[in-house]
């Protein structure tokens, strides 16, 4: 039996090799709500077949929500039907389908079905029929001949339209103007160039193959900037964005040394949009800047900066200031099923409201953070839940600037968080930050209230670690803290200025 993943990766670039395709394309591209995708054009050079519902869909999922018993397969080059099986623990479990092929491309005549997502490819070089079914938030179905339909990346409604496939950054602007959906196949971002796209309403920006961002030592540079309303951003199976971080990492991050792009991927002013199924690796410093967005959903992403764990001569990681998600001025954000390996905050909420972070797996960094919070900021109604933080300095953290004022942090919940190998603080609230570091002298200019820690379990490691560390300026600047089912082994505890602010 042929290995499923190498076959898919090997064939996909061949299918998508043409610079542009304005004829065939996606019949529909699903959202989270709705029932069914429409049909696409009946002809085209290359086009994608159906994608059926389910929250795991294209990329599958590992960890707390794995695909359930997926049957994976592709027809090979002029070969009979081939199938492969992925259990609920396997990763990647990219597709739930069975396939047969009569074409040298190996993507014709595919039928796909799956309760956790389904996918089929179709080529107009033969009379292909693709059907996909799945049960997500809504049951979905897609079918077509030649240029088929995509129905539901997340079990929702499909959006029709033409698709352009591009292989060079210079082709993107014209493709966005001509087509509602744009597929970036193995595009390289040249030095000092930016992939800047406003995704059309109802349209999609898709990534295939490996996107490499060439070395640009410039702290003002941002490689990827995306905007849009009711837009879809997603990676196809095997798609990777590589920031070549090893060319920048010097242990100093954005604090000095080699100039580095300050944020690698900006989502700016996006509304009612989704980003999913992306794998990003080796970013220089901060990865995502999520700013000015409303009702944004990010799901099933793998953010891997583990190569930055390589140590310098002093034994410190070369990767530094490598936050995964920096969030500001955003109202309505849902991030779920994200796997993060980095050397700084897994999440850092700096301003905004109405956010949920769930099914997070954070390794190697500084955990799930609020702040640092500076002056004139409001943060409210933020929940971190059903997540794991491992091999990190911190797990659950709220930090405010010592010289900050006129800011409020309220209604923050950490629930069902499992921690392990935490070297500094499992639970941490500090009102003493200055220039990014604690001073030990808390102030009262920023208020923190309505904070709940529930079912925080696990362990800290080392004599210097704390299971909880609360350092507030007063019981008026910190109030209404609730702790239930806290079970963290090892380490010290500290509570200032009053024991009422800490677990009993």
TrEMBL record:
Report if keyword Lipid metabolism is assigned: no
Matching entries from SUPFAM superfamilies are given as: Pectin lyase-like
MF terms in GO: polygalacturonase activity
**Quick one: a GO biological-process term for this protein?**
cell wall organization
Q: Which Pfam families match?
A: Glyco_hydro_28 (PF00295)
> Enzyme group, top EC level?
hydrolase
Q: Where is the composition biased (Polar residues)?
A: 65-87
Where in or outside the cell is it found? Secreted
Assigned keywords, A-Z: Cell wall biogenesis/degradation, Disulfide bond, Glycoprotein, Glycosidase, Hydrolase, Repeat, Secreted, Signal
Active site feature:
366
Q: Which reaction does it catalyse?
A: (1,4-alpha-D-galacturonosyl)n+m + H2O = (1,4-alpha-D-galacturonosyl)n + (1,4-alpha-D-galacturonosyl)m
| Name this polypeptide is given | endo-polygalacturonase
Q: What Enzyme Commission number(s) appear in the record?
A: 3.2.1.15
InterPro entries xrefs: Glyco_hydro_28, Glycosyl_hydrlase_28, PbH1, Pectin_lyas_fold, Pectin_lyase_fold/virulence
Q: What are the annotated GO cellular component locations?
A: extracellular region
What the record says about family reads:
Belongs to the glycosyl hydrolase 28 family.
Instruction: Cite the residue spans of the region called Disordered.
Output: 33-52, 59-87
Report the protein's function: Involved in maceration and soft-rotting of plant tissue. Hydrolyzes the 1,4-alpha glycosidic bonds of de-esterified pectate in the smooth region of the plant cell wall.
Q: Does the keyword Glycoprotein apply?
A: yes
């Amino acid at each position: 039996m042929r290995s499923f993943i190498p076959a898919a990766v090997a064939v996909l670039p061949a299918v998508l090799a043409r610079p542009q395709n304005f004829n065939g394309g996606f019949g529909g591209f699903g959202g989270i709500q709705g029932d069914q995708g429409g049909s696409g054009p009946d002809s085209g050079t290359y086009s994608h077949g159906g994608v059926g519902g389910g929250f795991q869909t294209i990329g599958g999922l590992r960890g707390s929500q794995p695909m359930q018993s997926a049957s994976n397969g592709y027809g090979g080059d002029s070969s009979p039907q081939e199938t492969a099986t992925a259990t609920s623990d396997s990763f990647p479990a990219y597709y739930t389908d069975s396939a047969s092929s009569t074409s040298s491309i190996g993507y014709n005549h595919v039928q796909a079905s799956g309760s956790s997502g389904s996918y089929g490819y179709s080529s107009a070089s033969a009379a292909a029929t693709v059907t996909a079914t799945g049960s997500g938030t809504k049951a979905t179905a897609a079918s077509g001949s030649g240029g088929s339909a995509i129905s539901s990346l997340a079990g929702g409604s499909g959006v029709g339209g033409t698709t352009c496939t591009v292989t060079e950054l210079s082709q993107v602007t014209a493709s966005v103007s001509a087509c509602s959906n744009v597929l970036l196949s193995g595009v390289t971002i040249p030095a000092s160039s930016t992939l800047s796209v406003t995704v059309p309403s109802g349209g999609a920006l898709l990534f295939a193959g490996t996107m490499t961002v060439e070395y640009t030592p410039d702290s003002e540079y941002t490689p990827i900037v995306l905007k849009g309303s009711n837009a879809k951003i997603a990676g196809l199976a095997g798609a990777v964005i590589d920031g070549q971080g090893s060319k920048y990492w010097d242990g100093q991050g954005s604090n000095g040394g080699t100039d580095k792009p300050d944020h690698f991927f900006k989502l700016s002013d996006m509304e009612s949009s989704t980003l999913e199924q992306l794998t990003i690796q080796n970013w220089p410093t901060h990865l995502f800047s999520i700013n000015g967005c409303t009702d944004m959903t990010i799901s099933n992403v793998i953010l891997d900066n583990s190569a930055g764990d390589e140590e310098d001569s002093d034994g410190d990681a070369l990767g530094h200031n490598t936050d995964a998600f920096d969030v500001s001025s955003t109202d309505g954000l849902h991030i779920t099923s994200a796997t993060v390996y980095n050397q700084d905050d897994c999440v850092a909420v700096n301003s905004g409201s109405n956010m949920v972070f769930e099914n997070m797996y954070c390794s190697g960094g500084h955990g799930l953070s609020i702040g640092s919070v500076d002056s004139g900021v409001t943060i409210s109604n933020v929940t971190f839940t059903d997540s794991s933080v491992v091999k990190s300095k911190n797990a659950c953290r709220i930090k405010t600037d010592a010289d900050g004022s006129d800011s409020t942090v309220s209604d923050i919940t950490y629930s069902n968080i499992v921690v392990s190998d935490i070297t500094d603080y499992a639970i941490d609230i500090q009102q003493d930050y200055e220039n990014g570091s604690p001073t030990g002298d808390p102030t009262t200019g920023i208020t923190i209230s309505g904070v709940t820690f529930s079912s925080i379990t696990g362990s800290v490691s080392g004599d210097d670690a704390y299971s909880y560390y609360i350092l507030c300026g007063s019981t008026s600047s910190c109030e209404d803290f609730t702790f239930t089912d806290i079970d963290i082994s090892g380490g010290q505890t500290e509570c200032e200025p009053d024991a009422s602010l800490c677990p009993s």
